Amino acid sequence: MAPFLQLRWLVHWLVSAAAWGLLCGAGFAHSPPLMPSLAPPCPLHCICLSQSQVVCNSASLRGVPSTLTPTVTQLSLSRADLRVLRSDAFAHLRQLRRLALDACNLTKIRPFAFRGLPRLRELYIQHTPLATVDAFAFAALQNITSIVLSHNRIAQIEAYAFAGTNYIKLVSLRNNPIKRILAHAFSGLNDVVQIELPSGIRSIEPQAFAGLGGVGTLELAYMDLPALLQDTFRGLTRVGRLALRESDLGVIRVGAFDGLQRVDVLEMCNNKIDAVEELALVQNNSVRSFKLTGNHMLESPESVVLEVENVVISGNHLPCECGRDPLANPLALTADFAEENYCISPLKVRGRSLASATGAGAACRGEAGGSARARAAAGAGALLGDALALPHLALTVTALAFFAGS
Ligand SMILES: *[C@@H]1O[C@H](CO)[C@@H](O)[C@H](O)[C@H]1NC(C)=O
Ligand SMILES: *[C@@H]1O[C@H](CO)[C@@H](O)[C@H](O)[C@H]1NC(C)=O
Ligand SMILES: *[C@@H]1O[C@H](CO)[C@@H](O)[C@H](O)[C@H]1NC(C)=O
Question: How far does the signal peptide extend, from start to end residue (predicted)?
Answer without folding.
Answer: 1-29
